[in-house]
Amino acid sequence: MEDIFNDRLARYSFMYRSRNSNKEKTRFLKAIVTDISQVRKDISVIEYSNQKKYSARNVYIGNIEKADQIVCTYYDTPPAYLGDYVLFDQKKQEKQTTKAVLGTSLIWFFLGILGTILYMKLVSAPFVLFSVQTVCLALIYGGYFIILSKLSKGAWNRKNLIRNTSSVLCLLQMLTENQNKKKVAYAFIDEGCYGRRGLDVLISSVKKNAKVYYLDSIGADATLNVMGQQFKEEFTDSKKIRYVSPIDQINYLFCADMNQNKEFYLDKSKLNKKNINYDHLTQAIELLNQSIKGD
């Protein structure tokens, strides 16, 4: 089992570490469906937003509509943003992302202007339409505007092991260990970095009294928190886990610190770490196994 986990860790933290574009997500989904099919055959991929160049997809393992409990996490990775990752505050995340987009785009824009001014001052030869110099210049400007276009849409963040590859690995580990519990279903949801859209699609498919558990940044080197009606405060105290009063019907497991404003957050130093806190993965699975009553 340890060899399987280490193999997954190597692949999902390097080969599939970025899951932003449609192409990157498709590559990831093919890999994860292949891994899951080694232990479960009841896999379905659901498209819920099909556009010309993009389609959002959730991956379900088990019978989502009839399952008593569903454990899920998001698999997409965030764009670059300024500041800390503040959990449960999508508006603040959007502002931080917008600032990063504007900042990098403006820097690149002014670098282009500076480069053009330097070229005009240093190159005194007359402009010739068909020449090696003109071709090179066209290639440089073409590359410049391609990069500027990508930056204006949001630069991709490559350091995604903590958020949220660690939770993906935790969920894979749990469904591998509990492959015979058919009343428990699992879901890898899309667009988790951009709000609740993928989660809401999942919720719309489950039965009314189903219990949903949601993982986020479970491998971070910060306090392990549980929030939800299915967790008992007495048990979490004995395990040095922070119990948080529920905010809705979802049961959350996440690693984060708490600031003076009672906000849960992870700073960049913890988000960018190259190692997972394995104890938190183990504790999360133990907590879930204790809370879930699948057969």
Structure characteristics:
295 residues, alpha/beta, Aminopeptidase, 2 domains, eight-stranded mixed beta sheet, three-stranded antiparallel beta sheet
Q: Alpha-carbon distance between the termini? A: 22 Å
Q: Low-confidence parts, pLDDT < 50 over ≥5 residues?
A: none
Under the CATH scheme, which class of the largest domain? Alpha Beta
Cα-based radius of gyration, to the nearest Å: 23 Å
Number of strand segments: 11
Number of separate domains:
2
Mean pLDDT: 84
Number of helices: 9
Name the helicity range.
Answer: 40-55%
At CATH level 3, the topology of the largest domain is Aminopeptidase
In what order do the strands lie side by side in the largest sheet?
1-2-5-3-6-9-7-8
Please sum up the structure shown.
The chain is α/β, with parallel strands linked by helices and 295 residues long. It contains nine helices and eleven strands.
Structural account:
This protein is of the alpha/beta class and 295 residues long. The chain folds into two domains: 2-79 and 158-291, Zn peptidases (Aminopeptidase, 3-Layer(aba) Sandwich), CATH 3.40.630.10; 91-152. Helices cover 44% and strands 18% of the residues. It contains nine helices and eleven strands. The strands form two sheets. An eight-stranded mixed beta sheet has the order 1-2-5-3-6-9-7-8, with helices on both faces. It has a three-stranded antiparallel beta sheet with strand order 4-11-10. A hairpin with a 4-residue loop joins strand 1 (43-50) and strand 2 (55-61). The longest helix is centred in the middle third of the chain and has 33 residues, at 90-122. The protein is elongated. The two termini are 22 Å apart. The model has no long low-confidence stretch (mean pLDDT 84).
